[in-house]
Amino acid sequence: MTQTGDEDVRLMLALRAGDAAAFDALFARWSGRLLRYLERIVRDAGCAEDLLQEVFLRVYRARERYEPDARFSTWLFTIATRLAWNELRRPRHQRSHDSIEEKSGTGALHLVAGQSAVDAVVDARRTSAHVERALRQLPERQRAALWLAAVEGLSYAEVAILLDTTDKSVKALVHRARTALAEQLDAAGRRGAPPGETS
């Protein structure tokens, strides 16, 4: 088990024993990453925040039953994924939503070296907006598999547990997602417009 995993387990076991501060520590460690993931799945910032609270409410309620059989991150993202997909089945989520990062023009991409600071920021924001739009075009399972594997660094086996499928299926989902993302970004670059928009 990794050092990070050891700390998460330690905190969950402390929470199970009645240490309320351990819950605050877990929230501080995981809330940011989990919120970014939920935003990309449900494509609605407000809804993602509500789901984040529900995830940690469920963690708290499950504290007495917790056993460190699997990585804490796998357990946590399983809860989040199931809640997100349940939410997406609601009629109000049958349309696209903008995320906080797209609205603000910020994103997870790093600035390109060798450019002036202003040019680098402009290029990074433009590229980030393209990536955000391209991600939103992906089917839910592809989007989730890609994010969990590429951003969160979970193994295909862990993602398979989360998505209730096989390692082989996860590999296919990630491959299709990467291919679709690359095609959309390439097309956007040729048009000079974000994916999903006509020139």
> In total, how many domains does the architecture comprise?
2
Distance between the terminal alpha carbons, to the nearest Å?
Answer: 50 Å
What global shape is seen? globular
How much of the sequence lies in strands comes to under 5%
CATH H-tier superfamily of the largest domain: RNA polymerase sigma factor, region 2, helix turn helix motif
Q: What percentage of residues falls in helices of 4 or more residues?
A: over 70%
SSE-based structural type: mainly alpha
Number of H- or I-type helical stretches: 9
Number of DSSP E strands: 0
- On the 0 to 100 scale, the average pLDDT is 78
Largest sheet: none
CATH architecture of the largest domain: Orthogonal Bundle
**Poorly predicted runs:** 96-124
What is the fold-level CATH name, i.e. the topology of the largest domain? Rna Polymerase Sigma Factor, Chain: A
CATH class of the largest domain: Mainly Alpha
Indicate the radius of gyration in whole angstroms.
18 Å
Order of helices and strands: HHHHHHHHH
Structure report:
It is a single chain. Helices cover 71% and strands 0% of the residues. It contains 9 helices and no strands. Helix 2 crosses helix 4. It is globular.
Short description:
71% of the residues lie in helices and 0% in strands. The chain contains nine helices and no strands.
